[in-house]
Structure of Late embryogenesis abundant protein LEA-2 subgroup domain-containing protein:
Amino acid sequence: MGPGIDLETATAEPYHAMKADDDDACGRGRRGCCSAVSSLLSAENEVLPVAVLSVFAILLIVGLTYREPSYSVDLTGYEGIDPGRAARIVSPSFNVTLRMNDTCVDSARAAVTYSGVALSWARAEPRDCAEGRWAKDVEVVARGGGVGLSRRLRDRMASDWRSGGVELDVSVTMYREGMDIPRTFNGKVKMVKRST
């Protein structure tokens, strides 16, 4: 048919085995298919590392600046109960200091318990969040009125008292306006003999 073309040989070779002449199209300065593919690949090669570095930088900044809130509780005094000889009916009051770091609290409820029995309770409203205070000591007086103690509980309290002190549990539930789920903290304090 044409000079120098063997049609039988050309049709016998599979299509994918034939060499394309892409190098000529790219080398002539024309924007052909190979230049579009190479620009797409180079754009992907630039976007992926930038995205990975951005995510890593955000995680690093959040990790360095975010601190988990911490809570602690101290017993600074008590009245209305003699742990060595507790009466059947007591009306104790406990001076409790709540320490809150890296958080804010609008209101809190505290309960002082011994062996699962609530001895006293209190409510505090420091209103820290509106003022932006993220560290605070809150002094509360937890009061109980007419709390009945069983014989077994009084005997256990007296035994603990003779052994060095009575350990109390303090459960604090903290509320923040605008948040539906309250945070809770359970701490332990110890009633020890006061020096006279």
Observations:
- The beta strands are 70-79, 89-90, 93-101, 107-114, 117-124, 135-143, 147-148, 166-175, 183-191.
- The two ends are 123 Å apart (CA to CA).
- The helical segments are 7-12, 22-27, 33-65, 128-131, 151-162.
- Residues 33-65 form the longest helix (33 residues).
